[in-house]
Amino acid sequence: MKKKIEEQIFLGLMKLVTASIILVFILILWVIIKKGWHALSWQIISEVPQGGFYFGKGGGILNAIVGSLYLALGSTFLAVLIGLPVALGMNIHFLRNKRWVSVLRFLLDALWGVPSIVFGAFGFALMTYFHLRASLLAGIITVTLFIVPIFIRALDEVIRTIPSGLLEASYSLGATKTRTAYSVFFRQALPGFITAILLAFGRGIGDAASVLFTAGYTDRIPHSLQDPTATLPLAIFFQLSSSIPEVKERAYAAALILTGIILIISIVSRLSTKKYKRNIL
After folding, report:
1. What's the pTM?
2. Taking the mean position of all CA atoms in its chain, how far away is CA 17?
3. What is the pLDDT of residue 277?
4. CA dihedral 252, 255, 259, 260 (to 10 degrees)
5. End-to-end CA distance of the chain, in Å?
6. What mean pLDDT comes out for the span 130-144?
7. Which of 121, 171, 213, 217 has the fewest CB atoms within 10 Å around its CB?
8. 133 pLDDT exceeds 90?
9. For 144-147, which contacts have Cβ atoms below 8 Å and span 24 or more sequence positions?
10. Nearest-5° angle of CA 238, CA 244, CA 245?
C-alpha cells in the first residue's frame, strides 16, 4: 500500500513537471510568434542591415544568422576534436585511475556551472594577452571553452551506460585500447554522441554573454576568421534595447529565427539518433 502511494505521488510529480515544461515551451513560442511574426519577412532573412537599421530603417539580419552559424559550427567542431578523445579516454584508457577520473569529472561539472559571462571575461583576457582583436576566431575559441565541458560530460554519461562486457570482449579478441574506444565504444555511443553535439551546438549558437566582448559586432558577413562577426543573440539584445517599436518587433523576429534553427537541428538530431540506434547492440 505504501509503495503504491509513493508511486502515485512520483507519477503525479512527473506529470506535473512534464505539463509545466510543455506550458513554458508553448508560452515562449506564443510570445515570440505574437510579437515577431509581423516583422518576419524574406527581407529580414536575406539582407544585411542598411544604414539606420537599428533606428527603424530597412535591411535584415543575414549577417547575424551567418555569423551565428559560423561561430556555432566552428566551436562545435573544435569541441568534438577536444572532447571526444577525452571522454573515450576517461572510460577506457584511464579506467583504472578512478580517483583522477573522478577529479576530472568534478572539475568538468564545476566548469559546466560557471556562468557564460565568466568565459567571456576569460576570453577577453586571452585576447588582451595575445594582442588579438574582437573577431570570429576569438569568439570561436571562447565559445569552445564554454561548451567543451558540456560536450565531454554529456558524452561521458552516455559511454558509462555501455556494458563493460563489450570492453572485455574487445580485449579478448586482441583489439588495442584505441581501437576499442573508436570501433566499439564510439559506435555504441553514436546516438548519444549526436545528442551531445546538439547540446553543445545549441548552447554555442544561443549564448550572448560569452561572445559579447570577444566576437565583436558588425553589419557585414565575415570573410575571414580575423573579421568581427554579428550573432543572433547580440542582434536580439541590441534591437530589444531600442525604444522604437518596429525595431523591437524585429528583435522578436530574430528570436523566432533562432528558435526555428534550434528546432530544425533538434528534429534532424532525433531522426539521426533513431536511425543509428538500430546499429547498436
Report:
1. 0.85
2. 24
3. 67
4. 70
5. 38
6. 89
7. 171
8. no
9. 144/74, 144/75, 144/78, 144/79, 144/82, 145/119, 146/75, 146/116, 146/119, 146/203, 146/204, 146/207, 146/210, 147/75, 147/76, 147/79, 147/200, 147/203, 147/204
10. 105
